[in-house]
Design a protein that fits this description.
The complex is a heterodimer of chains A (about 220) and B (about 300). Chain A has about 220 residues and is mostly helical. Chain A has 10 helices and 2 strands. In chain A, strands 1-2 form a two-stranded antiparallel sheet. Chain A is elongated. Chain B is of the alpha+beta class and about 300 residues long. The chains are: A mainly alpha (about 220), B alpha+beta (about 300).
């Protein structure tokens, strides 16, 4: 943290960042191996995993790891993602965001409505993917359910996976587009100007309680 | 059998390319199983094990003549016994030799995600190429007849090859060779249909009004066909599907879903790219930092004034 400015605000604690990047790693590996098994265009990706057999063998285990890892994210972040009235207002004005007029939108707390959408989308899809994936896991559960059930599970699994990948693409693009986001997730901190520009309500909460993030202090005290 | 016959493929799993199509006029073959002539001796099961060097594990008696109780990676054909009481109250012992039907439109091949792991030869035989098999079990989901079995040991899927190695050198399948009653015949599909037609006439003369050929059109016909005394009710024969077809769920998953998903992903990717080029990145500038500093100072001033 040598070049962390004195007035920087902590956006993500170290444990959150580790947890996030473990989840991200799992998700990327699952996407690569999953797409390889979904469409012949992508089958060449199986070589990344040591061939089709290894890819087939490891995909479900990465999935189980993702579920565990995502559960960690859920526990840490669910309370930041509860929907509020200003989120609906924000969504109605999302066109302004896309053309860089964020100033004209409602002030945003720790997460904006888009981020909350990503969170809840994944919160629904990850367990759906795990469950449908377990049903399709030939080695352990090939005889646990009937073949018609497994067919439905695979249709649900691939549909949910495409949905999750689309959400992930939005998530990644937003992180690349909003400069400072990647540093927040790699290094953990943002500048006051960044918080002011993108999460003004959150910024105000921190300033009011003399907190330097990520959560407001319960009682007003000294800025740590 | 792997690449020896690769110029003979007419269908290859998980590929968007046209399989080699130079060879023409390869006659389609078929195995005809005349259920009415079968005596249930299981010579075909033994011959299958013998030719293919299969030695499945010994099982416990399950209270049925079916032995072993189901197909498995080492059991590619199996006599299934059904005791059926017909409408005049007589017992009929229906014995069906179960195994891969070698569909003209194979559901296993449609479902398979691994390029070249399932192929169909010009003569109609559907074969699993173990080299390319990844052990996912999608073929099991694709099959309308519940035939393929994935081995727990080597994670490869297995089923009847119709002795493609024997047929390739002009021999008949091992089960055909072994059958003592001539209940299993092998030849061109047309010849087998003709043969079946004669046999069905005989059966009808003997009073089996509903005798007929099982060559289900829903899967484009099969390269293993049955002569059934009760062709109006195939399910009497240990659950042979009355109208087998590739599940519409599999059709959706392997059909419409694939292009739609690719388009959606491409749309998201291209959309992001266009936005990145047109709108550009969203950067925090010095004005924002100044505004943030002012805000902090304002709050601190107010705090000072009230305390």
């Amino acid at each position: 943290m040598s070049n962390r400015p004195k007035d920087a605000i902590t956006r993500y604690k170290t444990v959150s960042r580790l947890n996030h990047w473990l989840t991200a790693l799992c998700f990327v590996l699952l996407t690569l191996s999953g797409l390889a098994m979904f469409h012949p265009y992508f089958f060449f990706l199986s070589f990344l995993f040591g061939g089709g057999q290894w890819m087939r063998a490891i995909h479900p285990w990465i999935g189980v790891t993702l579920m565990a890892s995502f559960t960690g994210l859920f526990i840490q972040f669910w309370h930041h993602n509860l929907w509020a009235r200003h989120d609906t207002e924000w969504v109605k004005n999302v066109d302004k965001l896309l053309v860089g007029k964020e100033d004209e939108m409602p002030e945003v707390g720790v997460n904006n409505a888009g981020q909350k959408g990503v969170f809840w989308g994944m919160t629904i899809l990850v367990p759906v993917l795990l469950l449908s994936g377990l049903i399709a896991w030939e080695y352990y559960f090939g005889h646990a359910t009937s073949i018609p059930v497994q067919r439905i599970a695979l249709l649900i699994h691939s549909t949910a996976a495409i949905g999750a990948i689309l959400i992930w693409m939005v998530h990644v693009y937003a992180a690349l587009w909003i400069k400072g986001s990647m540093r927040a997730m790699w290094r953990g901190w943002v500048t006051p100007g960044w918080a002011w520009k993108h999460h003004r309500k959150w910024f105000r909460e921190l300033v009011e309680t003399r907190s330097n993030g990520p959560d407001p202090n319960p009682k007003p005290g000294n800025r740590a | 059998m792997a690449d020896l016959q690769s110029q003979n493929y007419i269908r290859v799993s998980a590929t968007t390319l046209t399989p080699p199509a130079t060879r023409a006029n390869v006659e389609e073959v078929a195995k005809l199983i005349d259920v009415s002539r079968c005596i249930g001796c299981k010579a075909c099961q033994s011959a299958c094990m013998e030719w293919n060097d299969l030695r499945p594990e010994m099982e416990e008696f399950q209270g049925s003549y079916d032995n072993p109780h189901d197909l498995n990676p080492g059991v590619w054909t199996l006599m299934r016994f059904t005791e059926y009481e017909n409408t005049s109250g007589d017992l009929e012992w229906l014995i069906r030799k179960d195994g891969c039907m070698h569909c003209e439109d194979p559901g296993c091949l449609k479902a398979c995600p691994s390029p070249g792991a399932i192929v169909q030869y010009a003569n109609g035989i559907v074969d699993f190429v173990s080299d390319a098999c990844i052990g996912c079990g999608y073929c099991i989901k694709g099959c309308p007849f519940n035939i393929p079995r994935v081995s727990d040991k080597d994670h490869k899927s297995y089923k009847c090859t119709l002795c493609s190695d024997r047929v390739g050198v002009g021999l008949e399948p091992a089960c055909v060779k072994s059958c003592p009653t001539g209940a299993i015949m092998f030849g061109t599909k047309n010849d087998m249909k003709d043969w079946a037609g004669e046999r069905i006439e005989e059966l009808k003369e003997r009073g089996f009004e509903n005798a007929g050929l099982y060559d289900p059109a829903e899967v484009g016909g099969t390269h293993v066909m049955y002569v059934l005394h009760h062709a109006d009710k195939p399910s009497l024969y240990a659950g042979l599907p009355d109208r087998p077809r590739i599940s519409p769920i599999v059709g959706l998953w392997k059909g419409l879903m694939k292009p739609v998903a690719l388009l959606a992903l491409a749309f998201a990717g291209i959309g992001s790219l266009v936005h990145a080029i047109v709108a550009g990145p969203e950067e925090v500038d010095e004005e924002d930092e100044a505004a943030a500093r002012q805000e902090i100072e304002r709050v601190e001033r107010e705090r000072g004034a009230t305390s």
